[in-house]
Design goal:
423 residues, alpha+beta, BirA Bifunctional Protein, domain 2, Rossmann fold, 2 domains, 8-stranded mixed β-sheet, 21% strand, elongated, binds histidyl-adenosine monophosphate
Length: 423
């Protein structure tokens, strides 16, 4: 029989590796909460229409990467089209509108963590199930909050030891700018249409911006000579972009203006940014995180016009950029029973220590003391604690510091054990 394996592009994360995930997730949560964000959890599955309308039908994601299926229909009904979420922004906006959060507070700051699904060609740093950590802000037109978000992101990366990064920023402008830029871009691309990739030809009239972030070499060559959006910014859009840059300067956050940055989603307006990593084990998939403003999406999905901005970082990519793991804090103590009949007493003591917050492991299979102590050594625990008949009568335990060579065995009253093991 063929061996059962994970679906292509989807991975297990086992103990030994998960500790680095925890560290990253905890650092992200802590930082987001220090900046006033609160967590939101939305379903992994949404109505397909949300992504078609929210992300845009002429994007790679909606056009070819979504896991979409038809749900079983009830009697006499046709099944609903559902999709595994390819990203978090559209779902958050749906939740924001559905629960009328807008009516409750003028500015809302949400963060989320979880798996996303895109049917991309798997490679190192590119998977079909991958995890994102993201932040979204509703109700603040910027540009100060735009700079604050970017700065918060750079701070997080620094805290995780990822300092060799490049922050790219650009502005796509608002509706007026985009209409003017679209015309200029089409005027440039139309005469070259025959040389474009098939995808780009197909999407040219609907969405010429997509040509600019196409991965096809012939498209990239043509894109290199295309007009630049920054030359088309309206006065208000230019002032917004200047404000972003001045605020980043005031914060001391280094950045590079990249006028060719467009990113693969259709909802962006004005501020756009991406953080690329240069170090660690990152290969070609060097975009650690991306984000931008999407001031039109809330109105497009049926809400009152509300400015919005956010970003998402790819957890697997950030882990690659972080490089090999530091030594993780392991077990505090390994408890061993002198004789098999001492196991209930070991369990009672283990429970007391665990209730006090210590990380404790035991071996309850009834093996010899020697074999238990071998496991204690291998477990990486700081202390070995042995309990036998004599210790039980005296209310003590024998404690050895496993990190010291030839450490002596100390007899410690059980009442003092928590303190001693914490030391
Ligand atoms: P995105 O650029 O599509 O933006 O994805 C954000 C990050 O998710 C990427 O920079 C990358 O690190 C990671 N990522 C994307 N696809 C994959 C993949 N197939 N495998 C591994 N990692 C991946 C968004 O998703 C937007 N929702 C960001 C945003 C939030 N914009 C505004 N608010």
């Amino acid at each position: 029989m063929a061996k059962l394996r994970t679906v292509k592009g989807m991975n297990d994360v086992l103990p030994g590796e998960i500790e680095r995930w925890h560290r990253l997730e905890q650092a992200f949560r802590d930082r987001a909460e220090r900046y006033g964000f609160a967590e939101v959890r939305t379903p992994l599955v949404e109505h397909t229409e949300l992504f078609e309308r929210g992300i845009g039908e002429a994007t790679d994601i909606v056009d070819k990467e979504m896991y979409t299926f038809t749900d079983k229909a009830g009697e006499g009904k046709s099944g609903k089209r559902l999709t595994l979420r390819p990203e978090g922004t559209a779902s958050c906006v749906r939740a924001y509108l559905q629960h009328n959060v807008q009516g409750q507070e003028p500015v809302t700051k949400w963060y989320y963590l979880g798996p996303m699904y895109r049917r991309e060609r798997p490679a190192k740093g590119r998977y079909r199930q991958f995890y994102q950590a993201g932040c979204e802000v509703y109700g603040d037109p910027g540009p100060y909050v735009d700079a604050e978000l970017i700065d918060m992101l750079v701070g997080l990366l620094g805290e995780l030891g990822v300092r060799d990064v490049e922050v790219l920023i650009n502005s796509l402008g608002g509706a007026t700018t985009r209409t003017r830029y679209r015309e200029a871009l089409l005027a440039y691309l139309r005469p070259r249409a025959a040389e474009l990739s098939e995808d780009s030809q197909r999407r040219l009239e609907r969405n010429p911006l997509r040509v600019l972030d196409s991965k096809a070499p012939q498209d990239q060559e043509i894109a290199a000579g295309a007009p630049r959006v920054l030359d088309f910014l309206s006065d208000e859009d230019a002032a917004h972009f200047d404000g972003l840059r001045a605020t980043l300067d005031a914060l001391g956050t280094p950045y590079t203006v990249e006028p060719r940055l467009v990113r693969g989603l259709d909802y962006y307006t004005r501020t756009l940014f991406e953080v690329r990593g240069r170090g660690g084990e990152l290969g070609a998939q060097n975009a650690l995180c991306g984000g931008g403003r999407y001031d039109d999406m809330i109105a497009q999905l049926g809400g009152k016009p509300t400015p919005a901005i956010g970003f998402a970082l790819g957890i697997e990519r950030l882990l690659l950029a972080m490089g090999p793991a530091d030594a993780e804090a392991g077990l505090d103590a390994f408890l061993a029973a002198q004789r098999p009949e001492d196991r209930p007493a070991v369990l009672v003591l283990a429970r007391t220590l665990r209730e006090a917050g210590l990380r404790v492991e035991t071996d309850l299979r009834g093996n010899s003391l020697k074999s238990q102590l071998r496991r204690a050594d291998k477990s990486g625990a700081r202390f070995a604690v042995v309990l036998g008949e004599a210790e039980q009568t005296q209310g003590t335990a024998k404690v050895t510091d496993l990190r010291q060579q030839n450490a002596e065995r100390r007899e410690i009253p059980q009442a003092e054990l928590v303190e001693a093991l914490r030391a």
